Amino acid sequence: MAQYFFDIHKSDGKDRISFTHPISLSTFFQIIKTKIPLLSLEKDISNTLDNFLGF
């Protein structure tokens, strides 16, 4: 039994449909997209604390 998965991504500024994206890879990208802003926020907070405390 085959599973087909479609995902929309941007290429050259245009939306493209990918037919070969494995579902696990697409799920991984969704997780990364949600985590990246949190990681940059944590880094900003860490830098602010370091500057405040004089480290």
Automatic annotation (TrEMBL):
TM regions (residue ranges): none
Membrane topology designation: Multi-pass membrane protein
Keyword RNA-binding in annotation: no
A Pfam family assignment: Ycf1
The entry's keywords: Membrane, Plastid, Plastid inner membrane, Protein transport, Transmembrane, Transmembrane helix, Transport
InterPro entries, alphabetized: TIC214 (IPR008896)
Cellular localisation: Plastid, Chloroplast inner membrane
GO cellular component annotations of the record: chloroplast inner membrane
GO biological process per UniProt: protein transport
Parts forming coiled coils: none
Subunit structure, as described in the record: Part of the Tic complex.
Family: Belongs to the TIC214 family.
Stated role: Involved in protein precursor import into chloroplasts. May be part of an intermediate translocation complex acting as a protein-conducting channel at the inner envelope.
Name this polypeptide is given: Protein TIC 214
Lineage, opening ranks: Eukaryota, Viridiplantae, Streptophyta, Embryophyta, Tracheophyta
